[in-house]
Design brief:
The complex is a heterodimer of chains A (465) and B (254).
Chain A lengths: L2 E5 L2 E5 L2 H8 L4 H6 L6 H12 L5 H4 L9 H8 L3 H4 L7 H9 L5 H7 L5 H9 L3 H10 L4 E2 L3 E2 L6 E4 L8 H13 L6 E4 L6 H17 L6 E3 L3 H9 L7 E4 L4 H6 L4 H14 L9 E5 L3 H4 L8 H14 L4 E5 L11 H17 L4 E4 L10 H14 L3 E4 L4 E2 L4 E2 L3 H11 L5 H9 L17 H12 L2
Parallel strand pairs in A: 5-6, 5-12, 6-7, 8-9, 9-10, 10-11
Antiparallel strand pairs in A: 1-2, 3-4, 13-14
Helix pairs in contact in A: 1-3, 5-17, 7-9, 9-17, 9-18, 10-18, 10-19, 11-22, 13-15, 17-18, 18-19, 19-20
Chain B lengths: L31 H19 L4 H10 L4 E5 L5 H6 L9 H8 L7 E6 L4 H18 L9 E5 L5 H9 L3 E7 L10 E7 L10 E7 L6 H18 L11 H10 L1
Helix pairs in contact in B: 5-7, 7-8
Classes of the chains: A alpha/beta (465), B alpha/beta (254).
Chain lengths: 465, 254
């Protein structure tokens, strides 16, 4: 079915729902590269105007990527909860935006609604929302997950400690982990992107993190971000694996380019669950996503990059993750050109994930060939902190020396806690207080004198093997 | 360091990693010196991306060292276009296509030097590396042109190599700058280059710079890959780098 919108003498036509969504998207370089973006600012507004009048039910009748061709589409349709959808079944996309922003629409309403929403409905409404709408509505969502601590409680922000090293040097990684812990970071996960994919090398990393955790009784979880098949093999070999990681995308073909399918994710989740390592919950998965991944795999089916991204969140939520991370500025300027596009995408991703019920965090980041700098990251961090983002990254000095890009630092996490009054996961915060690393207000203690606990931690990092 | 900076008493851990650890703090924030150190590194990386390659100078120094040079450019007219249209960075413009399409230009090996994402990488490292390759590889160097390509992506060497009728293409190209490595050069080797080759069909030698992979080791690896590629008639995942350079590199690290 085609759509149209008359503005003055010009009648703007859109071939189908896919075309309408793409042209209603806020300008970004990836949609231009794919040739699906609106050709003019007026055409973009015409698409938004037409989209506002589309009934939400349309998304249950018209698949953007055919059901027969794509297992992500099948997952979306097969798991859709009609009863949960009922309260908004009579709304258009524009009316849905209004409803979301009502003071009377509560966190409970949104939690009940989540299983009734498809990613395409959520992507559609986000295209009509300004940045402040994305912040206000996301802030209402409650998504709480658990493994060894509790992530996502109101008023909290967690941090993934990212201690990467270009040659996976265990001592170098341990040094960065220690730096992060002493700066009060690591409650979301201590997650290493390894340079190697050799199991013996990765095994050393899993073991080292597990030793630190158990020796100092830290209520945290660890992860090595290697391919899911490596993690399944490592679990079979008895490695101490807390969270299973995988990059995911919003189409079957893009997931195939990552070497995965839904059945493989299911197998990985069951393997991780079988270890029963969680103490307060069993959310065992950690996913990463990012706008542009489908296009870069030539697997976008002419669907715009933001809608593809939200479809990845439908994949994520099916596997009940502890954390899902949109690595927003990593992909480069051909997908998100500058700070403005990265900031917009970060706010969209966070809102869309949260509305679908996904524990959404954000790697607020950029590469050196993007028109962005640390000021843009400060802006997005402050905005996402206000929006209630589940977690952000903690990279030493914001400089990832393995992946060669800039993210947010341990200091950045302290900053956003200070200005917005955000606390850590409660179990982790209690541990930091017990170790005298922070005071009861959550601020870092004076560390100029070396306590016994601190001395022990430093020695442990020095002795890491 | 100002008197308000609270240092971290675990500074000794810095010897285990180049990561920015134990930076100290003022309140919740980075000390002034660290903010400026980071800002300088980012400025250098940005300059590496945005400064145009000085093709006149590079052409002159290559020719002075006995390398014949041909200059071409991709379809990207300027840097913003280059950054947003990677597909155009893989295609020659009309002029370049015309120049290299001339049968008089045919060459058994295509040696391409492209700006990529770091013009300084190419300006610093292309000539020293080519001089070492000339020593190691028995080619008719006086007749093989070095193709100097502006606004180039790795796969531009496919079209160049195809037009030249080359058996193998070597692209030396500026890599995406890291915060502490603004001038890292990459080398990509493709057997029977033609438009549409994918990355799995190439071999890559990366991080070439004095602080990373040294010129002699890089030249050894590249020469080995090129000889093996021609001998075994393939490149990419099927061609593993078994050269002793890796062994030497490991010894270096120890």
């Amino acid at each position: 079915m085609s759509y149209s919108c008359r503005i003055g003498v010009h009648n703007h036509r859109f071939a189908d729902l896919r075309d309408l969504l793409a042209k209603a998207s806020t300008l970004r370089s990836g949609d231009c590269l794919a040739g699906v973006a609106a050709g003019s600012a007026e055409e973009r507004m015409a698409a938004k105007l037409a989209l506002a009048d589309v009934p939400l039910r349309t998304f249950l009748n018209e698949a953007l990527i055919p059901y027969e061709q794509d297992e992500v589409t099948r997952l979306i349709f097969d798991t859709h909860d009609m009863a949960a959808f009922a309260p908004i079944a009579h709304l258009t996309v524009g009316e849905f935006r209004d409803w979301l922003l009502l003071e009377s629409t509560s966190a409970e309403d949104l939690s009940r609604l989540a299983p009734g929403l498809t990613p395409e409905m959520v992507a559609a409404v986000s295209k009509l929302m300004r940045n402040q709408d994305l912040i206000l509505a996301a802030r209402k969502c409650r998504v709480i997950t658990r493994f060894r601590n509790t992530i996502g409680l109101p008023g909290t922000l967690a941090v993934r400690l990212q201690p990467n090293h270009p040659t996976d040097d265990v001592r170098g990684i341990a040094a960065s982990i220690l730096d992060g812990l002493l700066y009060g970071c690591g409650d979301a996960v201590v997650g290493i992107n390894p340079a190697s994919d050799s199991l013996p090398v990765l095994g050393n990393l899993w073991r080292m993190m597990d030793e630190v955790r158990s020796q100092f009784e830290i209520p945290m979880q660890s992860c090595v971000l290697t391919h899911v098949t490596n993690q399944i093999r490592a679990i079979e070999q008895g490695m101490p694996i807390d969270l299973v990681f995988q990059s995911i995308a919003g189409t079957e073909k893009a997931n195939a380019s990552f070497g995965i399918d839904l059945a493989m994710l299911q197998e990985a989740r069951e393997a991780a669950l079988s270890l029963q390592r969680g103490t307060v919950g069993d959310n065992v998965m950690y996913f990463e996503t990012g706008q542009g991944s489908c296009l870069s795999a030539d697997a976008h089916h002419d669907v715009d990059q933001q809608t593809c991204e939200v479809r990845a969140y439908a994949v994520a939520r099916h596997f009940k993750p502890l954390l899902t991370n949109t690595v927003v500025g990593f992909i480069g300027p051909e997908y998100l050109y500058d700070g403005k596009q990265i900031i917009r995408a970060g706010l969209e991703d966070h809102f869309c994930g949260k509305l679908l019920g996904v524990p959404m965090g954000c790697d607020i980041c950029y590469t050196n060939h993007a028109e962005a700098d640390q000021d843009d990251m400060d802006n997005l961090l402050t905005l996402l902190g206000t929006a209630g983002v589940t977690f952000v990254m903690g990279v030493p000095g914001a400089d990832d020396i393995m992946l060669n890009y800039q993210s947010t630092s341990f200091h950045d996490a302290l900053y956003v806690r200070e200005v917005l009054g955000l606390r850590r996961a409660p179990e982790f915060e209690d541990w930091l207080v017990r170790m005298s690393l922070i005071d009861t207000a959550g601020r870092l203690s004076d560390q100029s004198t070396v306590s016994d606990q601190l001395r022990a931690l430093v020695h442990h990092a020095e002795d890491a093997r | 360091m100002s008197r308000w900076v609270q240092p971290n008493p675990w500074e000794q851990l810095r010897r285990h990693t180049a990561a920015r650890i134990a930076l100290g703090r003022v309140g919740a924030s980075l000390p002034t010196a660290e903010v400026l150190r980071f800002g300088l590194a980012h400025a250098q990386a940005r300059d590496a991306v945005l400064t145009p390659m000085d093709t006149d100078h590079l052409c002159e120094t290559l020719e002075n060292n006995g390398f014949p040079v041909l200059r071409v450019a991709s379809r990207c007219e300027d840097r913003p276009t280059y950054l947003m249209r990677p597909d155009w960075g893989r295609q020659l413009n009309e002029r370049g296509r015309h120049l290299l399409g001339d049968p008089a230009q045919s060459s058994p090996v295509a040696i391409v030097v492209g700006d990529g994402l770091s013009s300084v990488a190419v300006e610093h490292h292309a000539l020293p590396l080519l001089l070492l390759l000339r020593q190691r590889l028995e080619l008719d160097w006086a007749r093989i042109p070095v193709i100097l390509a502006r606004q180039a992506r790795v796969a531009l060497a496919d079209e160049i190599g195809q037009l030249l009728g080359a058996e193998v293409a070597l692209m030396l190209i500026g890599e995406r700058p890291g915060l502490s490595s603004p001038d890292s050069l990459g080398a990509y080797l493709t057997y029977r280059p033609k438009v549409g080759r994918n990355d799995g069909e190439r071999n890559c030698v990366s991080n070439i710079r004095p602080q990373g992979l040294s010129y002699p080791l890089a030249a050894q690896k590249i020469a080995y890959l090129m000889e093996e590629s021609l001998r075994r008639q393939l490149s990419g995942v099927g061609l593993k780098d078994d050269s002793m350079a890796d062994v030497a590199l490991l010894a270096d690290r120890r």
